[in-house]
């Protein structure tokens, strides 16, 4: 009998076909509607694998319901939605999709930065609403990107790719990271500095840190108070890294100039979210890695992780390789 794979959203055919050949699949196929929790808990009972994404919570309850589980695979680089401690207790490898989405996510980060700085969305709304009556001296005037200072918080793969783009715009690059990256400093002429210094000196503050207990609300009132009045804040990492209430206050009071956000503390946000009442905010529905090619490759990579897990091979990209450590109790 083939092993069962639960897939919590529709996935591209390329990935689906790979899994179908080797396994019985249960795919939730109501467009992009989330798989209801009770169905997830029910379907994982006899499943050997779960194909998930950033929007499902794979916690102790799910693991407790899934006694036959051999592998969890998320179609994302971030895995804060999965309880890795619970996975480790059960020696279940968890796969993710690093590397492949780096350039695509950096593109989106830079697009959001530019859209926010130059008021692209506001400008289009202005025309749509029939408000464009003549050329205006200061109409929709924004912030310069070329030559400005960008501060990148979280210099991982995506941070580097953003720094590379920033260099192309003759930006001065500052960064803050858990570890210094001397090679990146040299190659991209990036200057390491404390978080405080970065916040004080940057015209653009770009947050790319993963979501961990240490990064929870790492940007709050105190940090926002350090930023320049012309600062543009961009977040394409995780919403939990920011105190949204404090961000709202800083934007509403003009303490900082604008924000571009692809992620939120609770997703999806509704149209009456307070941040949407502000002119100086550009929001996107968590689409950092969403190019057709990249999302397809991510799905294939996630399927490869599942197939490896089902056959007892090591995953190409496990977030918890410690499960393979046979000395570990
Ligand atoms: C998306 O947010 C990801 O972690 O890949
Ligand atoms: C993700 O790929 C990162 O390390 O930034």
UniProtKB/TrEMBL annotation:
One of its GO terms (cellular component) is cytosol. One of its GO terms (molecular function) is hydroxypyruvate reductase [NAD(P)H] activity. It comes from the Bacteria. Residues 5-320 form the D-isomer specific 2-hydroxyacid dehydrogenase catalytic domain. Pfam families: 2-Hacid_dh (PF00389), 2-Hacid_dh_C (PF02826). Gene3D superfamilies: NAD(P)-binding Rossmann-like Domain. Residues 110-288 form the D-isomer specific 2-hydroxyacid dehydrogenase NAD-binding domain. InterPro entries: D-isomer_2-hydroxyacid_DH (IPR050223), D-isomer_2_OHA_DH_cat_dom (IPR006139), D-isomer_DH_CS1 (IPR029752), D-isomer_DH_NAD-bd (IPR006140), NAD(P)-bd_dom_sf (IPR036291). Keywords: Oxidoreductase. Belongs to the D-isomer specific 2-hydroxyacid dehydrogenase family. This is D-glycerate dehydrogenase. The lineage of its organism: Bacteria, Bacillati, Bacillota, Bacilli, Bacillales.
């Amino acid at each position: 009998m083939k092993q069962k794979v639960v897939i919590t959203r529709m996935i591209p055919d390329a990935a689906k076909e790979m899994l179908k050949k080797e396994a019985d699949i249960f795919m939730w196929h109501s467009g992009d509607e989330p798989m209801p929790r009770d169905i997830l808990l029910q379907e994982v009972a006899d499943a050997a694998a779960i194909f998930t994404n950033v929007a499902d919570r794979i916690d102790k309850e799910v693991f407790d319901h899934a006694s036959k589980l051999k592998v969890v695979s998320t179609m994302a680089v971030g895995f804060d939605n999965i309880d890795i401690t619970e996975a480790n207790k059960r020696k279940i490898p968890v796969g993710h999709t690093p590397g492949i989405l780096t350039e695509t996510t950096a593109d989106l980060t830079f697009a959001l930065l530019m859209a926010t700085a130059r008021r692209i969305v506001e400008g289009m709304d202005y025309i749509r609403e029939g408000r464009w009556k003549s050329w205006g001296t200061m109409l929709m005037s924004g912030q310069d990107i070329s030559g400005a200072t960008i501060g990148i918080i979280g210099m991982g793969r995506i941070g580097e790719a953003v720094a590379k783009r920033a260099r192309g715009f003759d930006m001065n690059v500052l960064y803050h990271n858990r570890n210094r990256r001397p090679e990146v400093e040299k190659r991209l002429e990036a200057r390491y500095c404390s978080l405080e210094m970065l916040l004080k000196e940057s015209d653009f503050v770009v947050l790319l840190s993963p979501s961990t207990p240490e990064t929870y609300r790492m940007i709050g009132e105190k940090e926002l108070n350090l930023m320049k009045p012309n600062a543009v804040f961009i977040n394409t990492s995780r919403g939990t890294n920011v105190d949204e209430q404090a961000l709202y206050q800083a934007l509403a009071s003009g303490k900082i100039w604008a924000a571009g956000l692809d992620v939120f503390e609770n997703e999806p946000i509704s149209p009456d979210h307070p941040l949407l009442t502000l002119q100086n905010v550009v929001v996107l529905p968590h689409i950092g890695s969403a190019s057709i090619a990249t999302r397809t490759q991510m799905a294939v990579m996630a399927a490869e992780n599942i197939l490896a897990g089902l056959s007892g091979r090591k995953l190409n990209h496990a977030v918890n390789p410690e499960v393979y450590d046979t000395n570990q109790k």
